[in-house]
């Protein structure tokens, strides 16, 4: 079956993995299998994961789910955990750590290579030249077809590309970053930079971690937020998401959208905006990453992606909302 979406969809497997690990929402293999079945039934086949997700268990689950036999395309990432986040080991973007991290990913995935391997975030304690030479070496070993970057500043993207050109190394082909109807900070500088260097953009957070749904309101208390969700204040991830979205400007924007949404759902509006009204373009290889903690949730989201353009008051509400948020919106980079 061919996909019916204006832009290709990638499944974000961050929520797959070992029970009790931060970020994990689906820990039963049969539930994960059902979610992948649904994803593929809509004509999509690309999966995004990371060595960091679920303490490495996201990759292990995908191996157990026979991703290769399913003819899925696999993307994974190496995160330089320079601050020892979530109590996990400190790592850097030095040649030894990168080689070890990629080998661990391939072992966990049960593969000798992946299609796309990312540097998940910058590590400014290691010279770019050293990091990029290591990427080129790993690419020459055939361990990944393409490589990408995530959470870098636009000037760093330019520096990376110029260093790669000067040294005859492969350039990054994909940038993965945060982007949604009320978080558009990539548009001013980053996207033009990516277009100049012919780098595709893969958008994560199209629903703002569930914030662009009907779940959250200005008076939602901490105890009313589902445990383990993106806005669970007891988790590091929850604290990060609250810092990004939980403020007066964003709630005012959300309330403005709700006043004009008519019979449409907030999540539907957000996903249709990504498909038809964002600055993403199929001809540039841009894609949208969507996760899910349940099969029903994924069915709804994939169906919403297939719907047409928005009109009138709803689009106006999103533009007004972005005008409210743009001055206080968080950074697109780490």
TrEMBL record:
Q: Does the keyword Oxidoreductase apply?
A: yes
Record keywords: Oxidoreductase
* Domain of life according to the entry: Eukaryota
Q: Where do the NADP-dependent oxidoreductase domain residues begin and end?
A: 8-320
An annotated Gene Ontology molecular function: oxidoreductase activity
The residues forming a coiled coil are none
What name is this protein filed under?
A: NADP-dependent oxidoreductase domain-containing protein
**Could you tell me which species this protein originates from?**
Phaeosphaeria nodorum (strain SN15 / ATCC MYA-4574 / FGSC 10173)
